Amino acid sequence: MPSETPRVSIPWPPLVEGRLVRRYKRFLADVELPGVGLVTAHTPNTGSMLDCSESGRPVFLSRSPNPGRKYPFSWEMIAMGDGLVGVNTVLPNRLAFLALEAGALPGLPLAGRLEREVRVGRSRLDLRLSAADGTEVWVEVKNCSLVRDGTALFPDAVSARGARHLGELAGLVGPGRRAVLLVLVQRGGAGFFSPADSIDPAWGQALRAALRQGVELLAHSVDLSLERASLGRRLEARL
User: Which of 119, 129, 161, 207 fits 137 for a cystine, CB–CB 3.0-4.6 Å?
Assistant: First the structure.
């Protein structure tokens, strides 16, 4: 990213390292913690987590300060052979909000006002930005954790909901209104982004149709360490 672009990052809370035993029931994972034993952690990820939920791998959990939570631990990252992979799909939305607020996404205006979870049709889109010049920018954020042969791929499972979001974004494009699909890749090793046509060809078709109707596509890496998650460089789209 250019040196004048603000660097946006989110520090992790204190992380606890353990070993993944299994992920199950979509939102749960059993993790072996040294000196503690087996704990059940919340898994904030609705996807299949293809290629990043291998049993026996080191994982990193945060712990909620809320004493009333049924599952106090949340699964944040897993260490795969190619490095750390972020599995918390809430983090990209937080990072996108901060990036838009700071004007850190090249090509998008500085936000005068930012709103979260704005209803459109049958969905809620992640962010609506209102710029000082009156431009309105709608942004839907997607988390990507699947990288193969240097290319980040989305989705990692069939996503009819994701295809619907693309149609709703396309319907918003008009005078003074922009619509953006922002893909944030929580895994290293990617230089490009492509739709995962072999997994969900309908989503790839919906993406290409939306782009023809004026939807914009931005894909960025997320740089991960045990201290923080930071917005990384823009990835070239290969469609």
Answer: 129
DSSP 82-139: TEEEE--THHHHHHHHHHHHHT-STTSPPEEEEEEEEEETTEEEEEEEEETTS-EEEE
164 CB-contact burial (10 Å; exposed 0-12 / middle 13-18 / buried 19+): middle
Report whether 71 contacts 34 (CB < 8 A): no
Residue 4 has pLDDT above 90, yes or no: no
Domain parsing of the chain, residue ranges: 11-85, 90-237
Q: Which two tokens stand for residue 209?
A: 């149709």
Look up residue 233 and give its amino acid.
R
Indicate the pairing of strand 151-154 with strand 216-224.
unpaired
Distance of CA 193 to the CA centre of its chain: 13
Q: Class for domain 90-237, per CATH?
A: alpha beta
CATH code of domain 11-85: 2.40.50.580
The pTM of this model reads: 0.94
Summary count for the chain: helices (H), strands (E): 3, 17
Measured between its terminal Cα atoms, the distance across the chain in Å is 22
State both tokens at 203: 């989503």
